[in-house]
Amino acid sequence: MTAEPTSTVPIPPLVRQNTWRLSITQAINGAGIQLIPTFGAIQVVMLLGNATFAGLATSLMALARVVTASWVGRLSDQKGRKAGLFLGLWLGLVGAMLVGTATLMGSFVLFCAGILVFGSGVGAVQQMRVAAADMYPPSRRGEGLSLVALGSLFGAVLSPLLVAFAEALSQLWHLNEIALAWLLVPGLILPGFLLVYGIRPDPRQMALEPQRYYPTWALQPTAMASGSLETPHPPGPRLAAILSAVVAQGQMVMMMAMTPLALKALECSLSQISFSVALHVVGMFAFSWFIGRMADRIGRKPILLAGLGVAGLGALLVGLGSGYWPITIGTFLVGLGWSGAFLGANTMLTDVTPAARRGRAIGSLDQWANLAGMGLPILGGLVVEALGLRALGFLGALLMLLPIASLTRVQEHRPGSYTAP
Q1: Distance (Å, whole) CA 2 – CA 298
Q2: Which residues sit opposite 412 in a β-bridge?
Q3: Do 379 and 88 form a contact (C-beta atoms < 8 A)?
Q4: 13-211 classified as CATH 1.20.1250.20
Q5: Cβ neighbours, 10 Å, residue 231
Q6: C-alpha to C-alpha distance for 254 and 244, rounded to whole angstroms
Q7: How many whole angstroms separate alpha carbon 371 and alpha carbon 249?
Q8: Using CA atoms, how far apart are residues 113 and 108, in angstroms rounded to an integer?
Q9: Domains 13-211 and 234-409 equal at CATH topology level
Q10: CA–CA distance from 94 to each of 63, 64, 303 (Å)?
Q11: 226: number of Cβ within 10 Å
């Protein structure tokens, strides 16, 4: 049996409008998230007077996401996706205000509290992925997830504009520009409330009644086989998806934490290092739409395998590269591979999870992925200290082999439809 062409399942205008609201909300939320890697270490040094705990802001951010991911997922399953999104926006707004105020006051304790609150909001807003998956049939689900992910790219572009505006205001008001940047974030978040409010109906409700929005598709024999109507699936795809996402996230964070060291060892300038990091972000998000469409056309499993392979190749280039451009290209490939693996894994997981439990499933995935994002950079630092950057490259590549065994057991006979091995 062949998959139905994607053109036979048109996307209703209502779903398109809701998707763009989610994507724009992701963009404005992402602008605030970028302040953590941009200013986090600088603020810790500013508040403590030394660099001993320079990485604390990133760690606290990840810790908050680990702690809140699961229960926010349960909330969105019980109360709807918009409830989780509203909670995330509120936490993000309050957290940004706390961080900005702490910077002005010079309070390290308040700064840590603000980062924890802000990180909890960031974790809650990740329920956007569930909302996108809810609104699309399996043959277009990868596309829906990719459009929301694409908002992160525009968030990365918006963040420097926010910082530049804060710098201009700081000269007028004679206040700390980093604090002002954080205090401007609530101004970005506020429109997000209106965007989320405008999503009608709640995506969870759309997932429970797909026949109302896709009547032609719901009548096709393939609809029941797709899993969107709560049919059981083998456990293999779920395990493979979670393992792939966890490994891809942990490897990406580890390589990005160590890449500046590799470039610094080559005596690269700060602007060169910044460009390399920017290219990594481009790899992570710029090709999301294409990857999502390919996941709908050829299947989630091939995209996952390709993403893991590309990320492994990128790690080898970072570790073995002897010049700026090989390492920078490796950085880009790590981001591109992460995009394929993470998007493919999220799509596969939502394929095999009933709508009533998708929030918890994605919450669990985020919980384990963020734990990997906390632990693997520490392991990477130990490896670099003991064995050098070359060993880090091999470690990054070997990690990508871990999900292969689980993925080879997944039988995806049509994109989004799986059978027991």
Answers
A1: 11
A2: 418
A3: no
A4: yes
A5: 13
A6: 15
A7: 9
A8: 9
A9: yes
A10: 18, 14, 38
A11: 23
The CATH number fitting domain 234-409, selected from 3.30.1360.130, 3.40.605.10, 1.20.1250.20, 1.10.1670.10: 1.20.1250.20
In the chain, domain spans? 13-211, 234-409
Burial 349-385 (b: 16+ CB within 10 A, else e): bbbbbbbeebbbbbbbbbbbbbbbbbebbeebbebbe
Helix axis angle, 108-125 relative to 81-105, nearest 10°? 160
Contact present, 307 and 338 (Cβ < 8 Å): yes
What amino acid occupies position 351? D
Chain centroid, CA 19 distance in Å: 16
Q: Which residues, including other chains, have CB under 8 Å from residue 167's CB and lie 6 or more apart?
A: 177
- Classify the phi-psi angles of 129: left when phi > 0, otherwise alpha if psi is within -120 to 50, otherwise beta: alpha
Q: Under 8 Å CB-to-CB from 249, ≥6 apart: which residues?
A: 338, 342, 369, 370, 372, 373
28, 88 contact by CB (below 8 A): no
Neighbour tally for 401: CB within 10 Å: 12
Closest Cα to residue 132, out of 18, 214, 3?
Answer: 18
pLDDT in tens, the chain (421 residues): 344 444 467 889 999 999 999 999 999 888 888 888 778 878 888 888 876 676 688 788 888 988 888 899 999 999 999 999 999 999 999 999 999 999 999 999 999 999 999 999 998 998 899 999 999 988 899 999 999 988 888 887 888 888 888 888 888 888 888 899 999 999 999 999 999 999 999 999 998 888 888 887 655 555 544 444 445 567 789 999 999 999 999 999 888 878 777 787 788 776 677 688 778 888 999 999 999 999 999 999 999 999 999 999 999 999 887 888 999 999 999 999 999 999 999 999 999 999 889 999 999 999 999 899 888 887 888 888 888 889 999 999 999 999 998 999 999 988 888 887 6
Token pair belonging to 357:
């439990």
